[in-house]
Amino acid sequence: MAGIRRRPKVKRVSLVVASLAFILLGSVTVGVADEPGIVPILCQNAYHPMTGEGSTFDRYAAALADIIRNDTSLNLVPVVVHSLGEFAEYLGYPQTYAGVLSLFEEKIPEQMDTSKFYSRTPEDLEKAIYELFRSGVGLVGMNDVAFCRNLSKTVFPVFANRSTPGQIGIVGGKLQMGHYYLVADPTHPVANGLPEKVFFTDVMMNWCYTTGKGGVEEPPKPAEGEVTFVYKTKVKGSPYKDGMVPAVIAYENGGRSVTLPAFGDTERGGPDDYRAVISDPNFQTLFKNSLKWVAERGKASYQGRLEEFKSRIDASQEEKLRLREEADKWKKKASLRRTTKLAVFTILAIVAIVAVYKLTFKAEVEEE
To answer: How far apart are CA 53 and CA 55, in angstroms?
Structure first.
């Protein structure tokens, strides 16, 4: 793993863009959420990007957006964003039903323990995304979201500390690197229309290694919420009794999330990484199923999030009014102090003039 490196600053969550969204929402009737939902999409390479790599990640995001646009039944409007801060801002819009986040991050040993790694995502943005998820926003996460220090436990519950390269398989008559996914819960909506066993092209599968005598029963789960392992895949070194690790994870805790701990455009596997994924009909079905399932919760929570949004705007306006009143008071106090000082200076000046006059007049009388 590479050493620690300085990251460029990212835009933090603010009420500025959110206020604009509120204005746009002015025509939306309260209690009605039939308008298309917004879906911000971020595919980001924050790990030593090479020349020209950024455009590849943007094309990956654009291709995911096209999958959404081409299925009008989703009733979702994709918006490609370019930073984690911008992504979090969009999640704050009441009319955002879900977000798609694919990260390729530098991973750092935790306290020099090379068996545990975390990505260098800003903790304040992780906290903001978690809070928005708990409020009801849906999320689909891919690749290195599995290594986020907090989100990998609270939103995308992979708890990852290992990565396994893909195997060689045949997709569309071509040799590709990937994993065979085996359905673990065929009744879950995310599995609708997909085979029980399917080969997906990916470069790396991120997963959690745990220790235990005689093999661990199943991977770790968050203390809160409901986790479903929809698909699993076999990896070498798996500590679990079935020899598999989760490959598609559905989670509910306020909002809904689907984690795909692969499918990230890493570029290290070749410039056509994302093209092989995007053109796969099974991946398109998996992606749309995941987005539809998480967006349902985002739509259902729209009313509550809209009311909360309005209350924040009202609180902001009240705070502005309070600060304006405080400023007026300070201006009055400052004006009073200036008036007092002027009066004191005037009195002193008069006293000085009188003293000088008396001294001068007295001196002239004595000379006569």
So the answer is: 5
**Residues 137, 18: Cα–Cα separation, whole Å:** 15
Neighbours of 117 (CB within 10 A): 20
What is the rounded CA–CA span in Å between residue 294 and residue 39?
11
Quick one: which H or E segment has residue 141? strand 138-143
Both tokens assigned to 56: 């590849």
Q: Which two tokens stand for residue 44?
A: 């980001």
Return the bridge partners of 294, or none.
none
122 Cβ contact partners less than 8 Å away, ≥ 6 residues apart: 7, 10, 84
pLDDT tens sequence across 44-78: 876 655 555 557 788 889 999 999 999 999 999 99
In contact, 92 and 130? CB cutoff 8 Å: no
Contact 97/77 with Cβ under 8 angstroms?
Answer: no
Cβ(176)–Cβ(168) below 8 Å: yes
Which run of H or of E encompasses 347? helix 302-367
Helix (H, G, I), strand (E, B) or coil at 298: helix
CA Rg value for the chain? 30
| pLDDT-based confidence at residue 177 (cuts at 50, 70, 90) | confident
